[in-house]
Amino acid sequence: MSHEAQEVEVKYRVKDLAALEAALSRRGVTLSTPVRQDDQAYAQAGWSHGHSKIGVVFARLRTQEGRHLFTVKKPLDNEMACLEHETEVADREQMHQAVIAMGFRPTVRVVKTRRTGTLNGTSICVDEIEHLGVFLELERTARAGESGVVVQQRLDSFALSLGVDLERITDTYDSLVYAATTSA
Fold it and tell me: Global pTM?
């Protein structure tokens, strides 16, 4: 395997936010103040919702607190175990035009308010997503040679250990927003 970082995550629909916040607090996790993230997702030409994402490159432009981040993800084991590259860009609109010129097309816009914390190398995000509700996202970078699926199992064990009513979600936010906004 190359030296690329594999970002591995698990997501859950949160049924009781106060219970989740209390459980995280008991573990010593302090969540940040809320930050608004405005994400535009892009897919390669020829890909559409419902097709497999494995091995397909996706892009995202995120604006957060006046900064613009450009991210490219390539799902490996599943949609939430990806090779990921990210950099800050100066001009969101120019980057948007460049992404389109590279053959990508805009898919969905995901707007969320995110609070973050960390525990033992795991990134913990509590996200309130427009049109969807509240979610918990746990993320960790897999070590070289480490299976993304095994990392997901460990993250899931941690989530279950919180003792909170959570529903594991295997879709990405862009797929969930797409489903919610096209069926409405």
Answer: 0.87
Residue 137 tokens read as 């996202």
Residues 6+ apart with CB under 8 A from 123: 116, 137, 138, 139, 140
Q: Residue 174: which of 55, 37, 67 has the closest Cα?
A: 37
What's the Cα-to-Cα distance from 143 to each of 9, 87, 151, rounded to whole Å? 14, 21, 9
For the chain, domains (ranges, CATH) are 7-182 (2.40.320.10)
* Element (DSSP H or E) covering residue 91: none
Q: What is the pLDDT of residues 52-84, one digit of tens each?
A: 888 888 999 999 999 999 999 887 776 767 788
Total Cβ atoms within 10 A of residue 129:
19
Phi-psi region of 90 (alpha: psi -120 to 50; beta: other; left: phi over 0): alpha
- Token digits for 5? 């970082």
Q: Strand locations in 17-132, DSSP E?
A: 35-44, 58-64, 67-75, 81-89, 104-119, 122-129
Q: Report, in angstroms and rounded to the nearest whole number, the Rg of the chain calculated over CA atoms.
A: 16
